[in-house]
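Final report, section 2: Outcomes. Of the targets proposed, VTT domain-containing protein is the one most frequently requested by collaborating groups, and we therefore present its record in full.
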Amino acid sequence: MTNWISDLVESMGYLGIGLLMFLENLFPPIPSELIMPLAGYSAAQGKLSLVGVLLSGMTGTVAGALFWYSVARIVNEERLRRWADRHGRWLTLDGNDISRLEDWFCRHRNWAVPSAHVIPGLRTLISIPAGIFEIPLVRFIPLTILGSGLWTCALGLAGYALGERFDAVDRYLGPASSIIMACLLAFYFWRVARFRPDRSG
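The predicted structure is given below as tokens.
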């Protein structure tokens, strides 16, 4: 995958960085922990501007977040509740869970949205409740820019500073990301196995 990412950045420059970070939000196994350090290394070599690298990465991430936000707005809360009534086990949610999730998310969105952008898997998922519960774009976009900006800048600057050793970022963060993704998947299957609809509401 490293060669593919490197070739895309080499051939498309800033557009390639933005595209890769957009795809990373759609398909989490594409690692931002490799994309942005490699792009930062390209800036250190003088092939690209560091500011351009960071802005491209952040723009791609925000675009990916907006994609899932838009999909979730189309789904909307009413449709989600209908799905929960029919397929609650696979969503691991019932109507009461959705109400509790909405209450929690609306109270904590100011830190939940930016914080999620530094956690693999959650970078993609956090846009879904934001869209489902119709968080205004004027709030969602700045929060997403804050979180994605911190993450992409940290990775890009690390690659810039490390130079040819840029892949050390992925070497150390990559296994941690894989563990987090595996834990999220295991938690989902645990929820499926233990799911019991709450009939009290």
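The chain has one domain: 2-194.
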